[in-house]
Amino acid sequence: MRLFTAITISLLMTFGAYAQLATTTALVGTVSDASRQTVPGAKVTAVNTGTHDTYMGITTGQGYYNLEFVAIGDYTLTVEQPGFQVSRVSGIHVDINQVVRNDVTLKVGSVVESVTVQATASAIKTDDATVSEVLSTRTVSEVPLNGRDVMLLATATPGVILGPKSSTTSTPPGDDFVGAGTREIQNSMSLDGISIVNNLITNTPTRPMVESIQEVEVQTGTYSAQYGAYLGVHINMITKSGTNDVHGALVEFLRNQVLDARAFFTLPTPANPTAAKPPLRQNQFGVEFDGPVYIPKLYNGKNKTFFMASYEGFRLVQQATSLSTQMPAAFFTGNFASVPTSSITGGVLKDPLNGNAPFAGNVIPTARISLITLKLQQFYPAANLPGFSSNFSVPVPSTGKYNQTVDRIDQNVGDKIRLYVRAHWQAWDVFGGNAIPVNGNTTPTIVTNYTAGYTHTLTPNLVNDLRLGRNFFNTSTVNPFFSSNQTSAGTGLGIPGFTGDSQYSNPGIPDFAITGFNGLSN
């Protein structure tokens, strides 16, 4: 179990050096006239084209403007100053953790005249030294992802690969990454600026629905100060907020053995001409909906109240054929008559309690067999193929199931106060089968991540930003005895001192290693 609580409070003055949060964004630039003299006191207004959210500021004595904590999205920037034409810059796109510069040149003229230009992306960032790549809404929704795991987009950036500890059945489960020349324990991952990392292993089980994510940023070098705790890959995901337009998505992704191609080892062979593909049933389905909050005749939230809600489910049932070496069932009762004499030292089994006299027919009398051994046989399936090696072939099942929701509300109070609340809940259940059924395990995982934000523009040069967040997940790996509520299987074997399962509610049996054969390990 890992509990992480993050509280971040920042008071920023836009005319000085500024700190950054994990989701800091800004519109900056210099306003000058045709003679390249800076223009102080100009009014600068940025309007989000999707929500009509408005940010305002005043240029400093050096003609510099800095609009902090703008939401990611597309903007139109307007600059006004008496004696000059109104200047507008449209098509400005702001990505997560980006400082976007647009320098504006004012032309002398009447205030009723205006000039509109189209923004162009800068080839080199001059206001931020961070080495990063931003994956846009379109990339997030259209790039094929195995299992629709949005975190895997990080591997599309140069120098980033999936880490060796990434697994849905490990303890703890989740994704981790290797990049930036560091080990995977140097990862940092966040959702809306709130950490989603298990601090012990630095992986995360959090897997929000693809359609609920607006952008993903992957940083691989030259980080700003707030990332000082980790030196590796920093992955920042931002959830969608609604706009004045209603959007939605209904998805169903299907995989099964009928549609999938054969793997090499499932091709028909002369020895098995009717070989079939192993069973596979995978369904991933969900719905996402966002827009303005509107209650007929009661409330119209256009331009001020927005929502995003999503649900995703996942169901997986599959199996693969396992071929292993199982101890023959006759061995449990002491019958080794089928073992070739060439495989037995001296050709016969000897009785150490009777002067090393041979056991008749290489069969140990039942009275000499431990009752513990006889009781263990119930947990050890019999071999189903001839011989003493590769004699056990069975289908091994594995299943996966999860349900999750991501929900968000944004509220604008005028043009100076912005509030949001976002909740993520996810429940995983993964079963990993084994050729020996009692060696299988189930990994249940519950993930919750909550955050709330409050941004207040006190003056054109003073912004207060408050964010509260809590990330929590509870995971464990349990054996079949726990899953089926068999609370005394270990005690029932009769091993002296082994009563922990019934005494401490810790179901299971001891591990037994059998040289050359499958063992019992749960």
Task: Tell me what you see in this structure.
The chain is mainly beta and 522 residues long. Among the domains are: 14-118, Immunoglobulin-like (Sandwich), CATH 2.60.40.1120; 131-236, TonB-dependent receptor, plug domain (Ferric Hydroxamate Uptake Protein, Chain A, domain 1, Beta Complex); 479-522, no CATH class. It is 4% helix and 42% strand. It has four helices and 28 strands. The strands form seven sheets. An eight-stranded antiparallel beta sheet has the order 1-28-27-26-25-22-19-18, with no helix packed on it. The longest helix is centred in the first third of the chain and has 6 residues, at 137-142. The radius of gyration is 32 Å and the shape is elongated. The relative contact order is 0.13.
Descriptors:
mainly beta, Immunoglobulin-like, Ferric Hydroxamate Uptake Protein, Chain A, domain 1, 4 helices, 28 strands, elongated, disordered N terminus
Task: Sum this structure up briefly.
By secondary structure, this protein is mainly beta. The chain has four helices and 28 strands.
Low-confidence stretches: 1-22
Biggest sheet character: 8 strands, antiparallel
Task: Output the CATH topology of one domain.
Answer: Ferric Hydroxamate Uptake Protein, Chain A, domain 1
CATH homology superfamily name of one domain: TonB-dependent receptor, plug domain
Number of helices: 4
* CATH architecture annotation of one domain: Beta Complex
Mean pLDDT: 85
Broad shape? elongated
What does the radius of gyration come to?
A: 32 Å
Strands of the biggest beta sheet: in what spatial order? 1-28-27-26-25-22-19-18
Amino-to-carboxy terminus distance? 21 Å
Under CATH at level 1, the class of one domain stands as: Mainly Beta
